[in-house]
Structure formats: C-alpha cells, structure tokens
Specification:
- By secondary structure, this protein is α/β, with parallel strands linked by helices.
- About 25% of the residues lie in helices and about 25% in strands.
- The protein has five helices and nine strands.
- A hairpin with a 2-residue loop joins strand 3 and strand 4.
- The radius of gyration is 19 Å and the shape is globular.
C-alpha cells in the first residue's frame, strides 16, 4: 500500500460527515443505503469500526465500516461497507483497510467476521475469495433487496454456456443442458456495473 496513507478511526464530526459524502460519491447522489453520521459514530462506540484511509494531505482516500453483534451466542463482526477512490483501487488500499479491520477485531478478541459481496463483479469476487481468503459459507436470498449466489472454486468444473460477443461484452450463449458434473462454470461479466450502464437488456 505504501507509506503515503494513514488508516485510523474517524475522530471528528467533520470526518464522519466526509465519510457520508464519500458514500454518495462512490455509489451515487442520494444513495439510499448510506450510513449516517449518527450510526457511524454510535456503532464505533459500541465496538464497531468506522475508519478511513487518509492521504498525506489528510484527504479521505477510502473507508471501511462495520458493526458488532451476537449470533448464536458468539460475538461477530459484520463488515458492511468498503470503498476506495477509483484511481487508487489497484494500489492495495482496499486490502490495507481490510487488514486494519482484522487487526482491530483480533485485538478485541472478535474472531468472526461476516460480509457480503456481489459475485457478478468479477474483480470483487477475486478480491474477497482469492486475495482475502474469505469463504462463501452462506447464501441469503435478497439480503439487500436483490442478491445472487456466491462464486466457488472452478477446479474440475465444466462450462455450461458458450460465449457470445456483444459490443464490448462477453455474454452467455445457449446453455449446454447435457453437462454432467459436480461443479459447473457460469459466465459472469468483468463488471456488472459497466454492463448495467450500457445495456440493461444484457442482464435481464
């Protein structure tokens, strides 16, 4: 990640407000799922983590947020949000924020962290499963209104679709229903967001 960024918990109302603004910058103005200043601050006081990565000038370059809770008698942590400025997404800042999150939790004796990811974002799936080593152990239907099954290992898997090229995108062709295997490969786009922005028909 380099030494140009400092990761620490938010320490002022101004920094909490900047995190709210950062959420809208990342996911769009009026982002309905944005976490407010009050929830960010209260969660932090009750064992959650609301922390930012700040550059040398003190500007917010990314943030991570999550809450603690109890499930089946165990204290667990729910990692709710992680965002990094687009131009900094390949410098290890996201991994640095997750590492900070992990170290904070381990120091508190919290040994379980849960979170969701969008398997239709290939880069997102790679980051979570391959780089962070997360395990997709549960599928919750419509967790946030709409979700999709998690990806798994492709070792020994067989392809179920041919590939069609449409503009800048690879799309699934006709399925091969005769495939008989324990695991199946299903084509996903490199970026579901880019596909949505270009052609909704391609994903409906």
């Amino acid at each position: 990640m380099g030494s140009d960024f400092t990761i620490r918990r938010f320490a002022s109302i101004a920094e909490f407000k900047e995190c709210v603004r950062f959420q809208e910058e990342t996911w769009g103005e009026g982002f309905s799922e944005r976490v407010s200043v009050a929830i960010l601050k209260v969660s932090q006081r009750l064992g959650g983590i609301a922390a930012g990565a700040f550059d040398a000038e003190g500007a917010l370059a990314g943030f991570v947020f999550g809450m603690t809770g109890v499930k089946e008698g165990h204290v667990i942590y729910w990692s709710d949000m992680l965002a990094v400025r687009p131009e900094l997404q390949d410098v290890g800042l996201g991994a640095g924020l997750k590492a900070y999150q992990r170290e904070e939790l381990v120091s508190r004796g919290v040994m379980r962290m849960h979170w969701t990811f969008d398997p239709f974002e290939a880069k997102n799936a790679h980051f979570n499963l391959n780089k962070l080593g997360a395990v997709a152990g549960e599928y919750v239907r419509d967790m946030y209104g709409r979700t999709d099954p998690a990806s798994g290992s492709d070792q020994g898997a067989q392809p179920t679709f041919g590939v069609l090229r449409e503009g800048d995108f690879n799309l699934p062709g006709e399925p091969d229903l005769a495939v008989d295997a324990d695991q199946l490969l299903v084509l996903i786009p490199d970026s579901i967001q880019a596909l949505r922005d270009t052609s909704l028909e391609g994903i409906m």
